Amino acid sequence: MSDAPAVPMPDTISIFLLDKLQRELEYLWPPGAEPIHEMSRYALLPPGKLLRPQLFMHSAKAVGGNPEPLLAAALSVEYLHVGSLIHDDVIDDDAIRRGRPSVQARYGVPGAIVSGDALMLRSISILVTHATNHAPAASVIKAARMLAETGEGLCRGQALEAKLCGDVRCGLSSYRSMVEQKTGALFQASCEIGALLGGGAAPQVRALNRFGHHLGIAFQMWDDLLSYVSGEERTGKPGRSDAANRRPTLPVLVGYDVADEAGRAQFELALSGKIPESDAHGLLLGLLDDSGALPLAEEMAARETQVAKSYLADLPDPDTAAELAALADAAIRRRG
DSSP state, 68? Predict the structure, then answer.
């Protein structure tokens, strides 16, 4: 047997990277009395899984770059993500986020709005500040533009989601268009910006762009399933939120597609706003179980993940490509 050191398993590497990102985030956000700082810190800490910064860092490494100097810059995508979550909770009137009171529940709606705004704007400044000394100026400017455009895309996706509210007939194509902007865009940006600042060649940057795009869609597909396969104690957010906000999420649309006329009428009732949210959620649970929509939707998320991973084949660092593939698999097999 060879006495060469074993290559760390992707999960081990990811845990190590996650710990470094968490430490950097805590360093950048010490306790402070200024209201915006306090509310932003509350939203950011303790952090979630930091999946998007992890994708940023792995993408920089996958193209042959050194991700270590980009640690703080990678957190820019987390700031944009968390800022958008704060706004989502205001829009949805959700009182729970990550298993504790949401920012709006703790500090009020005005505080939540301004702290969400501040974090989304801070995302660009931290990217530029911490990437400038470690990447060519042209790449930093391009990365900042990508991040700003991603923020705009998140807003367009949110507006489209509001437009689809209660419309169980909208179809999977409209759903996909919304998801591409609301969720897929930030995954795509995380990977593309990481690859760009890591010095990747154009084909490598494009490949990671496509990987992030499809992974983001798969992630949202699985997130839609969590309302029906996991409890609030696992997800850290209200389990009935989708039903309460009359969202035609992936399992609901799949169930509606395969249902007969009577079943479709029940789906329409559940998203009509004419019955209490607890009754709507219970009705949807029964309809999804009867129609077999949940395993069908899960298969769709798995297929989208396979498409994402197909873009990793030609990256120069196969070990990091394996880490990205492992992150992709973990993202759609989570239960909370």
Answer: G
CA distances from 94 to 85, 88, 233 (A): 10, 8, 15
Residue 46 preceded by cis peptide, ω within 30: yes
Distances (CA, A) of 111 to 80, 122, 157, 246: 17, 16, 23, 26
Per the confidence metrics, is the pTM higher than 0.90?
yes
Q: Which residue has the tokens 């009020």?
A: 108
Predicted confidence (pLDDT) per residue in 90-113, tens digit = 999 999 998 899 999 999 999 999
112 close to 102: Cβ distance less than 8 angstroms: yes
Beta strand segments in the chain, E? 96-97, 100-101
At 141-183, the pLDDT tens digits run 999 999 999 999 999 999 999 999 999 999 999 999 999 999 9
> Is the separation of the CB atoms in 64 and 317 below 8 Å?
yes
Asked whether 150 and 80 are in contact (CB, 8 A), the reply is: yes
Tokens of 274: 């004419």
Q: Give the DSSP letter string of 107-143.
A: H-HHHHHHHHHHHHHHHHHHHHHHHTTTS-HHHHHHH
CB distance 254 to 297 below 8 Å: yes
Q: Which residue ranges form the domains of the chain, and what is each CATH number?
A: 10-332 (1.10.600.10)
With contact defined as beta carbons under 8 Å apart, do 61 and 317 qualify? Answer: yes
Structure token pair of residue 25:
């985030």
- Strand pairing class (100-101; 96-97): antiparallel
If residue 216 lies in a helix (H) or strand (E), which one and from where to where? helix 202-229
Nearest to 57 by CA among 336, 335, 323: 323
Take residue 226 and report the two structure tokens written for it. 């969590």
For the chain, helix, strand, coil in percent to 5 are 75, 0, 25
* Interatomic CA distance for residues 251 and 221, integer angstroms: 8
Q: Which amino acid is at 242?
A: D
Number of Cβ within a 10 Å radius of residue 29? 18
**Structure tokens belonging to residue 331:** 């993202």
